[in-house]
Amino acid sequence: MTHPIVPLFGLGTFRLKEQAVIDSVSTALSLGYRAIDTAQIYGNEAEVGQAVAGSGVARSELFLTTKIWTDNLAQDRLIPSLKESLLKLRTDDVDLTLIHWPSPGQAVPVAEFMGALAEARRQGLTRHIGVSNFTVALMQEAIDAVGAGQIATNQIELHPYLQNRFVADFASGQGIQITSYMTLGYGKVLKDEVVQEIAAEHGVEPAQIALAWAMQLGYAVIPSSTQRKNLESNLAAQSLRLTSTDMERLAALDAGAAGRLVDPEGLAPRWD
What we know:
This protein is α/β, with parallel strands linked by helices. It has a domain at 11-186 and 219-226: NADP-dependent oxidoreductase domain (TIM Barrel, Alpha-Beta Barrel). The chain is built from ten helices and eight strands. The chain has an eight-stranded parallel β-sheet. Strand 3, helix 3 (75-89) and strand 4 form a beta-alpha-beta unit. It is globular, with a radius of gyration of 18 Å.
């Protein structure tokens, strides 16, 4: 397996605003987190930048990800919007820039925004580029535009109830890493009897089981929390090894399309 571009473990900041995100990022960095995931639409890039600047952690030690919102996908808007993100994040470049969602109704062609994203990388604004919420067909379009080897990751909803194997297998075959968001399934996964049983057997928290499962499959995870104890617990999932029996039991929880939690009308593509 090639060395993944995206660190397997990081901090997500979705839904965290103002002081909550400053505190979360600051605490996470003090605990040893080194990858931070944000997005233009989260409205918290400036606060993430503030927390990073105040952390004392060298920029070279961090892996920062942001995502281009759909309003900024057009060729003349993508790079200016990314430059704004960099100002807010107080950095000359980010490590990874993703297309957050495909253009609604294909208003902006995939080739146009992927071309603009590749140009942003050529200009030194981002070290790596990738996509998010892309189906197999959309990934193929992105590959046709810039080449498979150029796409670092596809960040998708993926948890034990929605294992998204068709998308994950295609990505893997193209050398595209999968980043799992919503790995804990809005907390639903933590209440699952199987997950709780496996957690009890290992003497760990249910969240650690879900995170370890995803990482053991080679997926990057970006759980978020505002609680220090949860941030510490999530971080410890990196050293947890599940047995093949554990992995089989978790694989059996897949509910397919019925397990999907994120399906925004007018934004979501036609899912695989």
